[in-house]
Amino acid sequence: MSHSACFSYCLGDRFDLDVLSPKLATIGQVQRLRDAFLVKMRQGECVVFHYGVLVCWGIEEDNALAICKELGPAVEGPIRATRDEISFAGNPQLDRLTIKHDHFQFPEDDPLHKLAVSHALAQSVKLEAFEEQVAATIKETSPIPETLASKGKIRLPRRKLAVLRGRLYLAKSQVNLHFDLLDKPDFFWDHPELDPYYNLTRANQELDSRLEILNKRLEVIGELLEILADEEHHKHSSFLEWIVIWLISSEILIFIFHDYLGWI
User: Fold this and answer.
1) Hey, is 205 helix, strand or coil?
2) Lower CB density within 10 Å: C or N end of the chain?
3) Strands 82-90 and 103-106, how do they pair?
4) Where is the DUF155 domain positioned along the sequence (predicted)?
């Protein structure tokens, strides 16, 4: 039984479909199934998802990377590129998909079976991009709560605080806006018989537990946003208080110089 590789790539936030469609036509025979494009080539198959993910079956990685480069002009939105790999083979002695140590065995060579698995693999590699993005944001801003705990305040100018709040909010909103991509795809309404392929792969990729962890990390970002908002409000209030103090002091000085000393 020969084994082949399957590579999953998250190239960006999404694909521009107007640019993507003619690019895919130069690669192979294209069939659109809901929000996925199934591309059949001489060697292997590719499944392309509108949210910036490409899953390549039975294709050498050099060729898969060449396809990624070809689709580059259709990629929109900056995102940390991610990659994943599994192996697969056909085994006619089986009556269902089996997975062991990231090795997938299919009972038959059916493109729709691979497409069903591709949905979960694509969600996994997309989730990995979100995980890395959120982890990098938390790491970058980790000195803020540490400084607050040790010194009682954050020694940053208001503009810097506002920039940090914007970056944290952007990281949180980008994930929240794409959370629906991690739900069960509409494709399975048309093909309920393929549910077991998707569900088994989703469990293998631990999508549910990873989503729970990501939600907790997003809660950390939300709490940090509140801390920064309170600190920015405090700095603004302090600034206004000093203006009031300065105005009152000026009034007192003018009163003294004018009424008592007659200098003004």
Assistant:
1) coil
2) N
3) parallel
4) 47-215
Domain coordinates of the chain in residue numbers?
4-109, 124-236
Residues in the chain: 264
**Contacts from 185-192 at CB under 8 Å and sequence distance 24+?**
185/34, 185/35, 185/36, 185/119, 186/34, 186/35, 187/33, 187/34, 187/35, 187/36, 187/115, 187/116, 187/119, 188/116, 188/119, 190/34, 191/112, 191/116
Residue 184 DSSP code = P
The distance from CA 34 to its chain's CA centroid, rounded to whole angstroms, is: 22
109, 90 Cβ separation under 8 angstroms: yes
CB 165 within 8 A of CB 225: yes
Q: Alpha carbon 121 to chain centroid distance?
A: 14
One digit per residue, pLDDT tens: the chain, 264 residues? 568 999 999 999 899 999 999 999 999 999 999 889 999 998 899 999 999 999 999 999 999 999 999 999 999 987 778 899 999 999 889 989 999 988 999 998 899 999 999 999 999 999 998 888 888 878 877 777 777 677 766 666 667 767 777 777 777 777 777 766 778 898 999 999 999 999 999 999 999 898 888 878 877 777 776 776 666 665 555 565 667 777 777 766 666 666 665 555
SS (H, E, C) 33-52: ECCEEEEECCCCEEEEECCC
Which CATH class for the 4-109 domain?
Answer: alpha beta
